[in-house]
Amino acid sequence: CLILSFFSRGKLGRYPPWPGKIVNPPKDLKKPRGKKCFFVKFFGTEDHAWIKVEQLKPYHPHKEEMIKINKGKRFQQAVDAVEEFLRKTKGKDQASSHNSTEEKNRRNSSEERGKQSAGEEKRKASLSEGKVKKGTGEGKKRVSSVSSERGSKSPLKRAQDQSPRKRGRPPKDEKDLTIPESSTVKRVMSGTVAGFKWPPSVSEPVKDSDPHFHHFLLSQTEKPTVCYQAITKKLKVCEEETGSTSIQAADSTAVNGSITPTDKKIGFLGLGLMGSGIVSNLLKMGHTVTVWNRTAEKCDLFIQEGARLGRTPAEVVSTCDITFACVSDPKAAKDLVLGPSGVLQGIRPGKCYVDMSTVDADTVTELAQVIVSRGGRFLEAPVSGNQQLSNDGMLVILAAGDRGLYEDCSSCFQAMGKTSFFLGEVGNAAKMMLIVNMVQGSFMATIAEGLTLAQVTGQSQQTLLDILNQGQLASIFLDQKCQNILQGNFKPDFYLKYIQKDLRLAIALGDSVNHPTPMAAAANEVYKRAKALDQSDNDMSAVYRAYIH
């Protein structure tokens, strides 16, 4: 059954309708509780999700209107996929019609043979009637009754009777996974769904958001939520308890063509490993972007993709509504704002500045104060991820500061990431980011330590990786970093010098509250040794070399 699906985005509006079809869900995926919903596969994305009945509309009656309101390239690819599906379905129906004619002929022939067989049995029963006793007459009646049933039932009905499945109510799990037959779907489409109104504009608030929907979903709740997350193409259910507010979007393949870019002018300062991928995705999603980089040559590629060039940070801020920045460390972040022709010189009342650098809380608090003192609005939004995730639009964004600015950045965060969290007052995101990277850096050092210990004790490093990948530690991060080490490929995906910087800042954060961080301190020493071995500009996995030299 072809449908259009509408997905709410909490307070920020709704996404345009997207074509899909109702399919059977995986056997291990339980149906969400609450309102009636169907499991839908979306064309052009290969994503799946449970969708409420009131969020579905029949495809054909609204096709033209849907195309008018959505001009995205990814959406057009989805429509093309629908048409291809319809062509294939039509071809199958024609073949099925031909086959059904043959099947009907076979059934008629089979029924005729059945009738002949029943008649033969009746004649045999009549011949033996005078030879049997009265007590056996009942048995004869039973035989005759069975014969009659065999002659009258169709082969399909007999096959159902012979099925090993027990009659009666189906098992509970099977019942939950059953998709309604076409008549039920028709009734749904003509009833609740047909009465569903087209989604409001992005500026209109939407109160009824679906907490079970992960792809395309923006959830903004202060309560614990239940969501579906896509992990390596498999749907798994997780319960997330958090006091923060989160914005969740799908991976870039799912949301291409569905993001409505903000009409605000966007500036971006810093085109390093992370910044380059972010800007590329902002442009792909239709944002108007002005770029600046200390090394001007890095801007050329983005100018070709449609970006505008800013000569100084001050010029970018003065000509844009919201300016993002992503630089290497606290010193670079301060110089960018406070230096000659810096951000501060372009700040006027209403101008917005979003710092995505991973720095300490003191630095980001100082920057927020000077921006706000000029009438500007400030948001910190460091990102968790690496170059590949940045390129794929799959970063995790941790934000704090101006809540209104956070919501104004919604389409940008959707373009660059899969999830964003609002953590409250300025400084919280910086602290959380340092803790996340402290855990990641310490884990990387432990991986390197384990691989070298395996080597010196005569164990296979590949076998160790295979064992880890089959256990509870299995992750994309573990596999990729171990592959880097086994292949001797340390092309930077996350610079070693930056993870060491984050460890240093995390240790200082612990010191500021008198909290011990012995594991991070030990890992930091290993990274410092790797830097002394000239590994600063290699990937963080090059910490392995600190153990073998």
TrEMBL record:
<dbReference type="InterPro" id="IPR000313">
    <property type="entry name" value="PWWP_dom"/>
</dbReference>
<dbReference type="Pfam" id="PF03446">
    <property type="entry name" value="NAD_binding_2"/>
</dbReference>
<dbReference type="GO" id="GO:0003677">
    <property type="term" value="F:DNA binding"/>
</dbReference>
<dbReference type="Pfam" id="PF00855">
    <property type="entry name" value="PWWP"/>
</dbReference>
<dbReference type="InterPro" id="IPR051265">
    <property type="entry name" value="HIBADH-related_NP60_sf"/>
</dbReference>
<dbReference type="InterPro" id="IPR035501">
    <property type="entry name" value="GLYR1_PWWP"/>
</dbReference>
<dbReference type="GO" id="GO:0031491">
    <property type="term" value="F:nucleosome binding"/>
</dbReference>
<feature type="compositionally biased region" description="Basic and acidic residues">
    <location>
        <begin position="88"/>
        <end position="141"/>
    </location>
</feature>
<dbReference type="InterPro" id="IPR013328">
    <property type="entry name" value="6PGD_dom2"/>
</dbReference>
<dbReference type="GO" id="GO:0140673">
    <property type="term" value="P:transcription elongation-coupled chromatin remodeling"/>
</dbReference>
<feature type="region of interest" description="Disordered">
    <location>
        <begin position="88"/>
        <end position="186"/>
    </location>
</feature>
<dbReference type="InterPro" id="IPR006115">
    <property type="entry name" value="6PGDH_NADP-bd"/>
</dbReference>
<dbReference type="GO" id="GO:0051287">
    <property type="term" value="F:NAD binding"/>
</dbReference>
<dbReference type="Pfam" id="PF14833">
    <property type="entry name" value="NAD_binding_11"/>
</dbReference>
<protein>
    <recommendedName>
        <fullName>Cytokine-like nuclear factor N-PAC</fullName>
    </recommendedName>
</protein>
<feature type="domain" description="PWWP">
    <location>
        <begin position="10"/>
        <end position="62"/>
    </location>
</feature>
<dbReference type="InterPro" id="IPR008927">
    <property type="entry name" value="6-PGluconate_DH-like_C_sf"/>
</dbReference>
<comment type="similarity">
    <text>Belongs to the HIBADH-related family. NP60 subfamily.</text>
</comment>
<dbReference type="GO" id="GO:0005634">
    <property type="term" value="C:nucleus"/>
</dbReference>
<dbReference type="InterPro" id="IPR036291">
    <property type="entry name" value="NAD(P)-bd_dom_sf"/>
</dbReference>
<keyword id="KW-0158">Chromosome</keyword>
<dbReference type="InterPro" id="IPR029154">
    <property type="entry name" value="HIBADH-like_NADP-bd"/>
</dbReference>
<dbReference type="GO" id="GO:0000785">
    <property type="term" value="C:chromatin"/>
</dbReference>
<feature type="compositionally biased region" description="Basic and acidic residues">
    <location>
        <begin position="158"/>
        <end position="178"/>
    </location>
</feature>
<keyword id="KW-0539">Nucleus</keyword>
<dbReference type="GO" id="GO:0050661">
    <property type="term" value="F:NADP binding"/>
</dbReference>
